[in-house]
TrEMBL record:
<feature type="transmembrane region" description="Helical">
    <location>
        <begin position="145"/>
        <end position="167"/>
    </location>
</feature>
<keyword id="KW-0445">Lipid transport</keyword>
<dbReference type="InterPro" id="IPR007290">
    <property type="entry name" value="Arv1"/>
</dbReference>
<feature type="transmembrane region" description="Helical">
    <location>
        <begin position="187"/>
        <end position="209"/>
    </location>
</feature>
<keyword id="KW-0812">Transmembrane</keyword>
<comment type="function">
    <text>Mediator of sterol homeostasis involved in sterol uptake, trafficking and distribution into membranes.</text>
</comment>
<dbReference type="Pfam" id="PF04161">
    <property type="entry name" value="Arv1"/>
</dbReference>
<dbReference type="GO" id="GO:0005794">
    <property type="term" value="C:Golgi apparatus"/>
</dbReference>
<dbReference type="GO" id="GO:0032366">
    <property type="term" value="P:intracellular sterol transport"/>
</dbReference>
<comment type="similarity">
    <text>Belongs to the ARV1 family.</text>
</comment>
<keyword id="KW-0443">Lipid metabolism</keyword>
<dbReference type="GO" id="GO:0032541">
    <property type="term" value="C:cortical endoplasmic reticulum"/>
</dbReference>
<dbReference type="GO" id="GO:0006665">
    <property type="term" value="P:sphingolipid metabolic process"/>
</dbReference>
<keyword id="KW-0256">Endoplasmic reticulum</keyword>
<protein>
    <recommendedName>
        <fullName>Protein ARV</fullName>
    </recommendedName>
</protein>
<keyword id="KW-0472">Membrane</keyword>
<dbReference type="GO" id="GO:0097036">
    <property type="term" value="P:regulation of plasma membrane sterol distribution"/>
</dbReference>
C-alpha cells in the first residue's frame, strides 16, 4: 500500500472518482496498521479506492481507459512521473529525424525537437484552456500541465518502438497516436466532467492546432 499517493498539501481538495463530489480526505487512520477508506457523502461509495492499489495496477487501469484511474492521478495525487512521457514524444521525433549526421548536427536537431515539442505542448494546453473556460471549474497552470502529461503517457510506446525497430512503421505510429488521443479525451472527461462528444471535439481542435504549429516550424524554421 502506498500511503503517499493518498496524501497531498492540506489546502488541496480531493474528489470522489465516481461522482466528482468534493471530499476532505481519502481515508481515515484508526490504528497504526489500519485505515478505512472515506465514503463519499454524495454517492456512498469509497472516495478513491486506488489509494490501496499498487501503482502497476493503477497504470493497467489507465491503459484500459478507466476514467476513475484518470481522476485518481489528476485530482487525488501529486505524482509527477508522467512528465517523462512528454519527453518520450521529443525522443521519438529526434529518432525519426536522425540519420547519419555528425555529432554537431544531432545535437542541433535535439534542440530543434525540444523546442518544437515545447511549442506544440504549449499550444495544445492553451487551446484546451480556452475551450474549457466555459466550464465552471477553473484549474491552475500546474494542473493543466499535469493533465497534458497524464494524457501523453501513451508516448511511452515510442520507447518500445525504438527497441522493437517500429518507429518508422506507419501503422504502429498511428495506433500510438490514437491511444494518446483517447487518453487526452479521458483526461478532459475526468477533469471537466464534460460529455464524450464535447471532450472529443476539444481534444481534436487542440491536436489540429498543435500539429499545425509543428508543421509550420518544420517548413519555415528548421530548414
Amino acid at each position: 500500500m502506498e500511503k503517499k499517493r493518498g496524501m497531498r498539501v492540506a489546502e488541496d481538495e480531493y474528489i470522489c472518482i465516481n461522482c466528482c463530489h468534493p471530499s476532505s480526505s481519502l481515508f481515515l487512520k484508526y490504528s497504526d496498521n489500519g485505515i478505512r477508506l472515506t465514503p463519499c457523502s454524495n454517492c456512498g461509495k469509497a472516495v478513491d479506492v486506488y489509494i490501496e492499489y499498487d501503482i502497476v495496477l493503477v497504470i493497467i487501469d489507465l491503459m484500459l481507459q478507466y476514467i476513475g484511474a484518470y481522476r485518481h492521478f489528476l485530482m487525488n495525487t501529486s505524482n509527477r512521473v508522467f512528465f517523462t512521457f512528454f519527453e518520450c514524444n521529443k525522443w521519438i521525433r529526434q529518432r525519426i529525424m536522425s540519420g547519419n549526421e555528425n555529432a554537431y548536427d544531432l545535437e542541433w536537431k535535439f534542440y530543434e525537437c525540444l523546442l518544437q515539442s515545447w511549442l506544440e505542448m504549449a499550444s495544445f494546453m492553451i487551446v484546451l484552456t480556452l475551450l474549457s473556460s466555459q466550464t465552471s471549474t477553473k484549474f491552475s497552470i500546474n494542473k493543466m500541465v499535469q493533465t497534458f502529461c497524464v494524457g501523453s503517457y501513451g508516448n511511452v510506446f515510442a520507447v518500445l518502438s525504438i527497441i522493437w525497430h517500429l518507429h518508422l512503421v506507419w501503422s504502429y505510429r498511428m495506433l500510438t497516436e490514437l491511444f494518446v488521443f483517447i487518453s487526452h479525451v479521458q483526461t478532459q472527461r475526468a477533469l471537466c466532467s464534460g460529455t464524450l462528444i464535447r471532450s472529443i471535439l476539444v481534444v481534436l481542435t487542440a491536436t489540429v492546432v498543435s500539429r499545425s504549429i509543428g508543421l509550420l516550424m518544420d517548413s519555415y524554421c528548421f530548414i
